Amino acid sequence: MATVFWDSCGKILLDILLKGESVNADRYCETLDRLRHAVRRKRPGLLRSGVVLQHNATPHTAKRTKEWLERYRWDIITHPAHSPDLAPSGFHLFGPLKRGKKFEDEDELIGEIRDWFIKA
């Protein structure tokens, strides 16, 4: 699973979950820590003006995650689970990757995603 965090200026963080790994509140909070450090490096003004995330999965709404978000005063915009509408990332960011290419293995897929993230 690839998760991309982005704003109007472009991509901020790519987080890849390998086969066999799962997302839970602890793993999601680790990702949020990496995001916070990436924002600090790439968009320092964003931390002062406020961060707003759009998410909806169970790890995103767990008590530990809510405490993390409250500690750093990050706001949430929800996107209904199983919504027929595409999430903005699904349309704007991942659209160019969906060209029907077949990958030999997970490593080739991850390499393609990382290359795309750097170039786009």
UniProtKB/TrEMBL annotation:
GO molecular function, one term: nucleic acid binding
Gene3D superfamilies in the cross-refs: Ribonuclease H-like superfamily/Ribonuclease H
One family name in Pfam for this protein: Transposase_1
InterPro entries in the cross-refs: RNaseH_sf, Transposase-MT_Hybrid, Transposase_1
Protein name listed in UniProt: Histone-lysine N-methyltransferase SETMAR
Native organism: Plakobranchus ocellatus
